[in-house]
Design a protein that fits this description.
The protein is mostly helical. Helix content is about 65%, strand content about 0%.
Length: about 180
């Protein structure tokens, strides 16, 4: 909850207050919960609304939509275009020229690999980082993430795709040094 609040307020202490206010609102309003969404989605909607209001009031917020707009329009492809065949390829235009390689279980579970994975996630832009954490680490559904972060389902999918692509690229560079040299 603190991470979601931090998307709207810049100060950790303010985000902690927002989380506390959210829990008070949940306790005071639980009798008004209608069950039209999951309890988790309802709580995160309250949190998101409170954090936005607090951030606007204090003039220290960065709207989540602004983060998405900056990330979605950065002009950078999610996957390096050199990894695909050109449109004039006779058999398979736009197919993988250099497809992702399978990794062994031993490669993936080493502590170093997990550190690379964590580091790659931490280096993501804030909106992408939050979406990949909620979806892939905490196991939320696409609908829950979109509702909690107040983005459209399409925006959530774009952010998740970009985040996964960047994390995979970091892992490829680590697990397959030849990939790094090919770039």
């Amino acid at each position: 909850m603190l991470r979601v609040a931090r998307l709207h307020v810049r100060d950790r202490a303010v985000a902690e207050e927002v989380v506390q206010e959210t829990w008070l609102a949940v306790l005071n309003g639980i009798d008004r919960f209608e069950g039209r969404s999951s309890l988790k989605t309802w709580i995160f909607r309250i949190l998101s609304n409170r954090a936005k209001t607090r951030g606007e009031r204090e003039g220290r917020s960065v709207p989540f939509s602004a983060l998405f707009a900056a990330e979605a329009t950065d002009g950078e492809p999610a996957v390096d275009v050199d990894r695909f065949l050109g449109p004039d390829h006779p058999r398979t235009p736009y197919a993988w020229a250099n497809p992702p390689r399978a990794w062994t279980q031993e490669q993936v579970i080493t502590r170093e690999t997990l550190d690379v994975l964590r580091s790659a996630i931490e280096e993501l832009p804030p909106a992408q980082r939050e979406v990949i954490r909620l979806r892939d680490i905490e196991g939320w559904s696409a609908e829950e993430v979109a509702a909690a972060l107040d983005v459209t389902d399409v925006n959530q999918r774009v952010l998740l795709h970009r985040a996964r692509s960047r994390v995979r690229a970091a892992l490829e560079c680590y697990l397959d040094p030849e990939m790094e040299q090919a770039r």
